Amino acid sequence: MRAGLSAALLLGAACAVPAAAADPRDLLRQAAAYEHGEGVARDVQRAHDLYCRAAKAGNAEAQYALGWMYANGRGIGRNDAVAGAFFSLAASQEHAQAARMLRHMQAPPGGLPDCMRDPPRQVAR
Q: Would you say 25 and 86 are in contact if contact means Cβ atoms under 8 Å apart?
């Protein structure tokens, strides 16, 4: 089996894993593959979603990657406030590149996208 095809099959299978069971490092690898089109068709939205799952689980590298995507408008709308928020999260975990990027941001860190929020709780009646 060709390397690109096997990577695509592995990535597709890994994406079927429930969010709670997915390892943030695996999500990070999958997201990078989709962001750059390495072994799979480039899909920036899917990359964003996978990075967000890993970032929400506390992965500093995913937080940095999302900051970079928002700071540079890589496949999503540019938003310096959201970029700053992600860089701030990663920098708080001693991610050196995120700390450097945060120093260069013009806008103060803002809110995070919905994918970083917990869904509203269902109240039993």
A: no
d(CA 122, CA 115): 18
Rounded Cα distance between 92 and 37, Å, is 30
CA 125 to mean position of chain CA atoms: 36
d(CA 75, CA 91) in angstroms, rounded, equals 23
d(CA 78, CA 67) in angstroms, rounded, equals 10
| Mean pLDDT per 10-residue section of the chain, whose length is 125 residues | 34 41 90 96 96 96 97 92 95 96 85 86 70
Question: To the nearest 10°, the Cα dihedral for 38, 43, 44, 50?
Answer: -80
Q: What is the pTM of this model?
A: 0.77
